[in-house]
Amino acid sequence: MADDATKIDLGSALAERVKAFAEAAGSNVEIVVRDAVADYVDDWSETLKRLAEYDRTGVSFDAEGVLDRFQNAVATRAKSMA
Fold first, then answer.
1. Distance CA 21, CA 3 (A)
2. pLDDT over 60 (residue 1)
3. Contact yes or no for 31/22 (Cβ under 8 A)
4. Which has more pLDDT, 15 or 1?
5. Nearest to residue 10, comparing CAs of 43, 34, 45, 41?
6. How far apart are the first and last CA of the chain?
7. How far apart are CA 29 and CA 17, in angstroms?
């Protein structure tokens, strides 16, 4: 199991960018980095779940087609609410 704290060397250039981002966001470097890593791990976990589902079923969806249908549905809904 990992230690309570893991130290990561971001390198000076990235560390400065992260620091500037954290300050602009009203946060701190530790929180920004922790949140970014958590988001990455969560996204990767979701990707692996989707790949396993594809491997199991062979079913996939065209992202462009799905997005087009979603945008059309939103536009239709917006018109009906106007």
1. 27
2. no
3. yes
4. 15
5. 34
6. 56
7. 10
pLDDT at 39: 92
* Cβ 36 vs Cβ 29: under 8 Å: no
Query: At residue 54, what is the residue type?
Result: Y
C-alpha torsion 49→51→53→57, nearest 10: 180
For residues 29 and 22, the answer to whether their CB atoms sit within 8 Å is yes
DSSP 17-70: HHHHHHHHTT--HHHHHHHHHHHHHHHHHHHHHHHHHHHHH-----HHHHHHHH
Separation of alpha carbons 6 and 37, rounded Å: 12
Which tokens belong to 69? 């249908």
